[in-house]
Amino acid sequence: MSQPDFTVDIFQNEFLPAGGQDVSSVITVTSGEVVPEAAEEVAGAEIIIIDCSGSMGSPRTKIAEARAATAAAVDVIRDGVAFAVIAGNTGAQPVFPRDGSLVIASPSTRHAAQQAVAGLRPGGGTAIGQWLRLAQQMFRAHPATLRHAILLTDGKNQHENPAQLDEAIRVCEGEFGCDCRGVGTDWEVSELRTVSKTLLGTVDIVPDPAGLAADFAAMIQNAMGKQVADVALRVWTPQHAAVRFVKQVAPAVDDLTGRRTSSGAQAGDYPTGAWGPGESRDYHVGIEVNPAGVGQEMLAARVSLVAASPSGTEVLGQGLVRAIWTDDEALSTKINPRVAHYTGQAELAEAIQDGLEARKQGDEETATARLGRAVALAHRSGNEDTAKLLAKVVDIVDVETGTVRLKKKVEDVDEMALDTRSTKTVRVKKEHA
Q: Which of 98, 139, 244, 305 could form a disulfide with 317 if both were Cys (CB 3.0 to 4.6 A apart)?
């Protein structure tokens, strides 16, 4: 199957003042359509990891809804895709198939998997690292390159130490993508966020177990739409320039700067995971250049989308970031609307997380200031979903200035929903595109 072409659009103010060094740009990447040769489908592999610890039995509807959700997810796995189900507690056990392999989806194997899942019973503790390691071993034994997992838990990782979980996540990095869901309010947002960020997936809260089935089916359907695996954002800079940061800023904020791998002289690759047709994401790229004279122009960076191919590495799309020095203050001080928007969205996510942590530590002054800043940023950027979540944690006095009061009583589910979804962003409004 041929790889899709990617459109790479660069949004920036290329004009710098005399002596200016910082070049900031937003890279909008959109994947094209793939036409399967001879109607060939994209083969992939799916593993569903279900928490079966003792806490999943309280209330009893929790494990029942988890079983129903797994059955619903299995139901939408496409024929020809390899899949398996893992039960997690203090250890990890293959539920279907029992031998720890992956089987090809068909009406008969989907039915058999649903029957096996119906027998899941809660018991034992929670050791998420063990669950991830088993998934990694099972994926490793299968040739599929598009590898995706769902991980569901209702509790904290109490039966292994943080170092064991960190090591398991490290081992799985680059092996498969993982969407994480926490059901109820007894799990730890930071634990699942670390898993999902490292494994290029999503994290969210499912407050009511009754919502699991629809969520699981949607995640599998999204995974079934992926057509190209392991795409990287490659940033090349000339010798007199260097990368300051690379961040995904839409659909969610994710700092990729520390995940750079060298791909040649003055070039580095940043992982973006798997892509489906027509998918669009935004990246904020900061470059530092050596100053040049007024009127001079230089190429600050070349940004490419690359993926592995039988012949090596294939370039799927490319764009150029420029720098021009000027003594025209009107030109050099103009801020590109997309750069301004996403700078604010990244600050919004940081303000929420800082504010919630300060609130947890009993520092009401800092919590009020940071969450107030978040309210103002959410309002200015039109991030209505985040604004609604903030309103459940603070009383808003003045939305424009971000003047707020901390609510005396906040439901755990509201605080966790705000924390979990703090990194979700909104795209630039069309009039600013």
A: 305
Amino acid identity of 227? Q
> CA 414 to CA 268: how far, in whole Å?
39
Helix (H) or strand (E) holding 195: helix 189-198
CA dihedral 335, 338, 343, 345 (to 10 degrees): 140
pLDDT at 38: 36
Residue whose pair of structure tokens reads 């189900």 in the numeric block: 85
Distance CA 260, CA 358 (A): 31
Q: What is the C-alpha separation between 132 and 51, in angstroms, rounded?
A: 12
Cβ neighbors of 357 (< 8 A, separation 6 or more) are none
**CA terminus-to-terminus distance, the chain:** 33
User: What's the rounded Cα separation, in Å, for the pair 372 and 399?
Assistant: 8
Q: Which candidate, 253, 178, 188, places its Cα nearest to that of 426?
A: 253
Evaluate if residue 219 carries a pLDDT over 90: yes
Rounded CA-CA distance 181/161 in Å is 21
Q: How far is CA 237 from the centre of its chain?
A: 26
Mean pLDDT of 271-284: 96
CA nearest neighbour of 132 among 64, 49, 76: 49
